[in-house]
Structures are given as structure tokens and as C-alpha cells.
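Lab notebook: predicted structure, single chain.

Context: the supervisor wants predicted structures on file for every construct in the current expression panel, including those that have not yet been purified. This is the next one on the list. No modifications to the sequence; it matches the entry in the shared construct table.
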Amino acid sequence: MTLKHSYLVLSLILFTFVLPIATVHSEMLSVKGEKVNMRSGPGKSFPVVYEYGKGFPVMVITKKGDWVKVKDFEKDFGWIHKSLLIKKPQMVVKVSSRGKINIRSGPGTNYKRVGEAYYGVIFDSLFTKSGWVKVQHETGLTGWVKRDLLWGY
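Prediction complete. Output recorded below exactly as produced.
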């Protein structure tokens, strides 16, 4: 095997096995304040791209000084000051095609529906079991939602 072929094989291994594993374990944070600005760059002088509410989950892409570059569930990127982010398990409803999702009394479709939620609703993430997440809304509503209908941790 030539040196060129060795690099090709190593690259294929890296892209096939290592990178997908790294993306699965990305750091997740949540917005700490009520009205938090996501900016186009790492500083207050950069324009505001979006404004997020309390608990909104974001994925950390990189850090630069006191600023964190993040991605949200709609794949929008921007920068938030680190003092406005916390490590708290939060999830957001990511499915919009169905209009609303069911919140159930247990981890399965055979359990009673105790509520419903729409695209963009934020929940505290309490517990995960068999592809389901036990969640709690700020109103106190607690129940189970299918994991693939949510984004966050």
C-alpha cells in the first residue's frame, strides 16, 4: 500500500467513524434570560440575528473569549455571550408538519394523552426511556414525548 493510499484509508475511517461520533456528543446549553440576543459575531458591536427566550436549547459550535458560537434547532448560527447560557437539560418541539404533538402519561403511544404542544414549545428534560422523554413545561404540565419529535438534551 502506498503512502497516498494509506492517507485515503485513514481519511475514510475518520469520516466514517470518528466524526459522526463527535457530533453526537456536542455540548448543549440553554438560554438563561428572558430576551437573549444571538449576534452575527462574537461581540456587542455585531448585529442581532435572533432573540431567544428562557430555556431555549442551543448546540455549542465553538468558543471565542467570552462568546459562544451556537446552532439552534432550525440550523441558524450565531453568537451568544457565555454569561447568558446555562447547562440545563431543555428541549424544543421540532416537528411542525403535524401541527401539534401529543404529551402522554407514560413512555408509549398506548398511554393516555395528557396534553399537546406546538412547534417551538420549550420543555425541561427530566428523564429518557426507550426513545421517549419525560418533559415538564413551565406551566407544570408533565408527561412523555417521543424523542424524535424534540431537539435538545
